[in-house]
């Protein structure tokens, strides 16, 4: 699984011109699921996400987690994070997991984030044509890949 985490002042997802989910201060987490990803990958990434110290403390040092600052999380599935660009100019998505793996891992990831955070995590709609808006705070953007955890 691959995540792109952005510290945000606000973020939202709209589908068909209608607001679906929104958060204020917190994180926008884009989630890509690849073939071979497991529940263990999902759990590791969820724990890492909630504990990631990317929010400023009283001294202006990134030393607090989203949980520490009472921030929210908006998690959005994004299969394009699995793109391979090694050959040619057209990205290949052959590593992207099919719905039978990707949907349960995305849903379980969101539920695990909610459990660890202690409140509801907002979501996009898996497979929908979503319009994502955000105000990146910092900017702070972190990429985490469960296959690179060691």
Automatic annotation (TrEMBL):
A motif (Gly-cisPro motif, important for rejection of L-amino acids) lies at residues 138-139. It catalyses: a D-aminoacyl-tRNA + H2O = a tRNA + a D-alpha-amino acid + H(+); glycyl-tRNA(Ala) + H2O = tRNA(Ala) + glycine + H(+). InterPro entries: Daa-tRNA_deacyls_DTD (IPR003732), DTD-like_sf (IPR023509). Keywords: Cytoplasm, Hydrolase, RNA-binding, tRNA-binding. It is found in: Cytoplasm. The keyword Lyase does not apply. Its EC number is 3.1.1.96, 3.1.1.-. One of its GO terms (molecular function) is D-aminoacyl-tRNA deacylase activity. Belongs to the DTD family. HAMAP family: Deacylase_Dtd (MF_00518). Homodimer. A Gly-cisPro motif from one monomer fits into the active site of the other monomer to allow specific chiral rejection of L-amino acids. This is D-aminoacyl-tRNA deacylase. It comes from Heminiphilus faecis.
């Amino acid at each position: 699984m691959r995540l792109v985490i952005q510290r945000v002042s606000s973020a939202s997802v709209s589908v068909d011109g209608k607001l679906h989910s929104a958060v204020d201060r917190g994180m926008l987490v884009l989630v890509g699921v690849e073939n071979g990803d497991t529940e263990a990958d999902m759990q590791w990434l969820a724990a890492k996400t909630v504990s990631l110290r990317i929010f400023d403390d009283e001294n202006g040092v990134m030393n607090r987690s989203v949980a520490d600052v009472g921030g929210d999380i908006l998690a959005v599935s994004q299969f394009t994070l699995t793109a391979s660009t090694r050959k040619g100019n057209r990205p290949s998505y052959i590593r992207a997991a099919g719905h039978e793996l990707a949907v349960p891992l995305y849903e379980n990831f969101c539920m695990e984030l909610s459990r660890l955070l202690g409140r509801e995590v907002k979501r996009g709609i898996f497979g929908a044509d979503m319009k994502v808006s955000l105000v990146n705070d910092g900017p702070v953007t972190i990429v985490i890949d469960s296959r690179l955890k060691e």
